[in-house]
Amino acid sequence: MIDSPDDLGKILFVGGAMRSGTTLLQRVLCSTPATNPLIAECRYLFSVLRLHEETLRHFDLRGRDYFGDPDGLAAFTQDICRDFIARTRRLYPNAEHLVLKSPELTQFFPLLARWFPACRFVVVLRDPRDAIASMTEISGKARAKGQRSQIAELGRDMARYCGAFMSNYAPLTQDKEKWADRLLLVRYEDLVRDPGVIATLSRFTGLALTVEAIARAGDLASLDARKASAMSAEFYAPLWAEGVTDSRVGRFRERLNAAEIAEIEWHCAEFGKTFGYW
Description:
By secondary structure, the protein is an alpha/beta fold. The protein is about 50% helix and about 10% strand. The protein has helices spanning about 20-30, 45-55, 60, 65, 70-90, 110-115, 130-145, 160-170, 175-180, 190-195, 195-205, 210-215, 220-230, 250-255, 260-265, 270-275; strands spanning about 10-15, 95-100, 120-125, 185. About 30% of the residues are buried.
């Protein structure tokens, strides 16, 4: 039984918007023997926290009869999260650091930071134009196959794409002063172009990361095949099987028209200016 948050050991949560490079960042962090191998996204944890949020939002109707008060709900959900992390850690007993990733989970990082004060968080940023261009590509593939999904329904609605993109990062400002020392923001473009970022990641995480080890972190055949069979093709990211490359930087110019680019720059103006994208 886990007696305190610190008993969970060293936990690294990886987050960021969809198509922002979270998988690449996860691969980088999992390139040393000190971590678990590259594993699938922790969607279960996200689902638990989303249910917690929905129950809290409608607490009088859905939660009071079962948890008494919001603190009771929080304690119950925290126990589930703790047990999930502990169970995962037991599957990888040789891992000093446990690396867990899910883009959707990013919105709950402030909550996880409050509940688990020993955890650290690494969030990847990306040019909104490139991220959204990639989203439109998988949306188009889904619609071409007649598949229904949340992203397929977005079509070419840039405003909705921007809302989805920004929703991952906006919550990171919540109580930031209380956990800023445990949060590291990394630009995707720097990750694939600037070797100095590896040193920054090493200092923050405590992992002995090297450019050479990361270059060799492409032996993903078993997981690659598993994801390819488990996920529909339009959501499968080729970068699962590629090395670190900057080939996708600036590709929005090939996929978006001038009006779409301008709309993204308008909706994401503060983000783009803050992080040096325009």
